[in-house]
Write a structure and sequence with these properties.
There is one protein chain. The protein is built from 13 helices and no strands. By secondary structure, it is mainly alpha-helical. It has two domains: about 100 residues, no CATH class; about 120 residues, no CATH class. Helix 2 runs parallel beside helix 4 and helix 11 packs antiparallel against helix 13. The protein starts with about 30 loop residues before the first helix and ends in a 5-residue tail after the last helix.
Amino acid sequence: MQRSRSALHAPDTTGELLGEIPAPVSQAELPSPRALLEEVRSPGVARAEVDALLSGLAKPLGPGESARERADLLHEILGDEQVRDYMGSGGRKVAHVAVLQLVELGFPYALEVPPEQYAQARAASGHHVVTRREGKNRGMGLVATTFVGALESLPMLFLALDGRPSEVALALAWILGVALTSFVPAALAETGPVVSRDGLRTLLKVAVVLPALPWLAAAALMVVGSLLDGSFSYALLALLPLGMGLLRLGGAKWLYGSSAD
């Protein structure tokens, strides 16, 4: 006997929910995500089948299934204008679930998700998303962090070009450390894995902030020295390390100032 299906249409802009909430789908009974997708693509799809697809997308990779295959399937769903707009129980949209599952696959598949698309998916799923002033602050953080890294690397760059082998090794180690605490955090600030993982965001923020502490300590010592000696020369010199420290603190705040709940 052929099972009857209630017609399911893509929701309108008001985000209407479809039909009645079906009984929960057992994970053990679910076929492969590919088979579930084909079911949803067939005419007269029912809401229960949309729920089954959403549950199937959350399943771990099956035997012989690679992460690349699952990522390609998720991209296929996002490219299907009809399927991606279906909604399941509780108003979960297929496109949002597909985006979140891409991020869950980790590197490098999470990098394939635009930050704006990920933010929409997290907001729709009830999570508090990263809120940050767009454009200007992000650009200021990128410039500040990159600029301070370039200034810190410049003296060692000259040493690496003209020094002895031991000095060259020291210079290269210094430049690598500067890159890991300035250029790398600046480059990764808006990537999918960093946006989606609070721990990684915190780690990169700390990496930018920690080198600011020696600069600020040097500036404080110079100011104290100028007060003890009654000379303002140390106070003027203190502006250099003070500026370097403030650039790092500002860059960390502008790039990673707000973190997700």
